[in-house]
Amino acid sequence: MPGDTAATERIDEEPEPMVVTFKSRDEPEFQKPDHDPHGETCAAAAHSTASCDRCGKSGLVPTANLEYASGFVGGPEREVICEDCA
């Protein structure tokens, strides 16, 4: 609405960055079981490779978090940062 400064301030504010934990493919949840060496684990299917927007650290992050941070599921686009940069 014209003249509504509260609404303008909310739009102009930088959204809070999304703080994520980067995981490695070496972690147990991403390892394929010995009895089924083919395919992909559920954890691997639900994660995507990403990097911290501030320091460049990279690893696996839940894909749902990346979709949210990108603004694909509503809300503003926001930075994805590691715990060290938070």
Summarize the structure in short:
This is Small CPxCG-related zinc finger protein. With 86 residues, this protein is α+β, with helices and mostly antiparallel strands.
Describe this structure in words.
This is Small CPxCG-related zinc finger protein. It comes from Halorubrum laminariae. By secondary structure, this protein is of the alpha+beta class. It has one domain (15-82). 23% of the residues lie in helices and 19% in strands. The chain is built from three helices and four strands, in the order αβαββαβ. It has helices at 5-12, 42-45, 63-70; strands spanning 18-20, 47-51, 58-62, 80-82. A two-stranded parallel sheet has the order 1-4. A two-stranded antiparallel ribbon has the order 2-3. β2 (47-51) and β3 (58-62) form a beta hairpin. The longest helix is centred in the N-terminal third of the chain and has 8 residues, at 5-12.
